[in-house]
Amino acid sequence: MNRLKDRIKEIEPVLTKEFGIDNKMALPKLLKVVVNMGIGEAYKNKELMEQSKKDLMAITGQMPQIRPAKKSVASFGIRRGVPVGLRVTLRDKRMYSFLDKLFSIVFPRLRDFRGVSLKSFDKFGNYSIGLAEHTVFPEIDITKTQPRGIEITMVITGSNQKKSKRLIELLGLPFAKIT
């Protein structure tokens, strides 16, 4: 079984006690993880597009969805409908497996990593992390791919930032120490 999925059973009583929640349905829960990758000029080069898709599939274990541009932007040279990004939505086993890899393998591999920012919560309690390069994941061969940015969003039920922070902190997300 998955380590993080097992840890949820230990976390629920802690959250219940800390926040005084009587109803188990009112506890914050990790609903899904959305992984996005911008593909930039890859829409002009099919090989680069395929390599980006393979990389994201290797990282997440799931085939990415191609996201088209919603509107034309002349200054970027993008027309409406042109592929501009890749997206994967992870749930349940794949979500916990991905987060376990992110917390225990990827973050320790980052140079000068002191934790993630506390400012990345939205008003609904969801948390987003941006990585400058996707090559920090162990599945990626640096010699065969071009580094691309990647964005990871954890969607959490219960629209409270404080409860969401405590949930993902107990799951093992290392937050930066405030000095």
From TrEMBL:
Annotated ranges, domain Large ribosomal subunit protein uL5 C-terminal: 83-175
Coiled-coil ranges per UniProt: none
Keyword rRNA-binding listed: yes
Segments passing through the bilayer: none
Example of a GO cellular component annotation carried by this entry: ribosome
Keyword Protein transport: no
Top-level division of the source organism's lineage: Bacteria
Residue ranges occupied by any Large ribosomal subunit protein uL5 N-terminal domain in the UniProt entry: 23-79
Pfam family, one: Ribosomal_L5_C
Keyword vocabulary terms for this entry: Ribonucleoprotein, Ribosomal protein, RNA-binding, rRNA-binding, tRNA-binding
InterPro entries reported for this sequence: Ribosomal_uL5, Ribosomal_uL5_bac-type, Ribosomal_uL5_C, Ribosomal_uL5_dom_sf, Ribosomal_uL5_N
GO molecular function: rRNA binding; structural constituent of ribosome; tRNA binding
GO biological process: translation
Quaternary structure (record): Part of the 50S ribosomal subunit; part of the 5S rRNA/L5/L18/L25 subcomplex. Contacts the 5S rRNA and the P site tRNA. Forms a bridge to the 30S subunit in the 70S ribosome.
Assigned protein family: Belongs to the universal ribosomal protein uL5 family.
NCBIfam families: PRK00010.1
Annotated function: This is 1 of the proteins that bind and probably mediate the attachment of the 5S RNA into the large ribosomal subunit, where it forms part of the central protuberance. In the 70S ribosome it contacts protein S13 of the 30S subunit (bridge B1b), connecting the 2 subunits; this bridge is implicated in subunit movement. Contacts the P site tRNA; the 5S rRNA and some of its associated proteins might help stabilize positioning of ribosome-bound tRNAs.
PANTHER family: 60S RIBOSOMAL PROTEIN L11-RELATED
Protein name: Large ribosomal subunit protein uL5
